[in-house]
User: Fold this.
Amino acid sequence: MTIRIAMWSGPRNLSTAMMRAFENRADCVVSDEPFYAAYLAATGLDHPMRDEVLRSQPTAWQDVATSLAGPLPQATDAADATVWYQKHMTHHMLPAFGLDWMGGFRHAFLIRAPSRVLNSYVAKREEVTLSDIGLVRQVELFDRFANDTGAAPPVVDSDDLLADPEAILRSLCAALSIPFDPAMLHWPRGRRASDGVWAPAWYGTVEQSTGFAAPAGSALPALPDPLQRIADAAQPYYERLSAYRLSV
Assistant:
């Protein structure tokens, strides 16, 4: 039986590092933001490496959904995999994209303080709106899947993950009903064949990593007024999800 894990994150939430952790499991293959091209095609937005993204993936959401609900992709280094970890950006899952095909998926949510997200995001793409960081859509999806399953999906706060990676990953694995694997704590430096084609624009830091970074400290970054207004608007959505975060 294939265990499909849908991890719902916004950008700059340590989502690629989390994907690295799961990909380092012997029983797991990963998919990196499979709806990115469909999102760009539907919205017409200009993102770094837009043309390359559009060429690299299906642009019809139905085709993506059919693939993700279909047979487990076979990776040469995980021939006996039973876990399929799918890294999703919540803002990519537009309201027009259906969700009924996700029956039986195990959902989890990765969050980060809005000011930290924005401070990191604008280093890669100067133009940003509230919808770009995904928190509003994240709450909508959280409510949808909680209602579908009758239980709140597990939520991981990026600050908690950095403070104690092993404890948080053990809690996450328990919540997802999979065994914890110590291999999740460290991975080889470099790019992966599974990384999206957009990796050169976004993944520079994680490509140099071999594990989760040291905590950033409790102080939140100071933001210019336009970004602070977005952070303030996002804060209630972050706090709503934070109430369900896994503890160490």
Q: What stands out?
A: Residues 3-242 form a domain with the Rossmann fold fold (CATH 3.40.50.300).
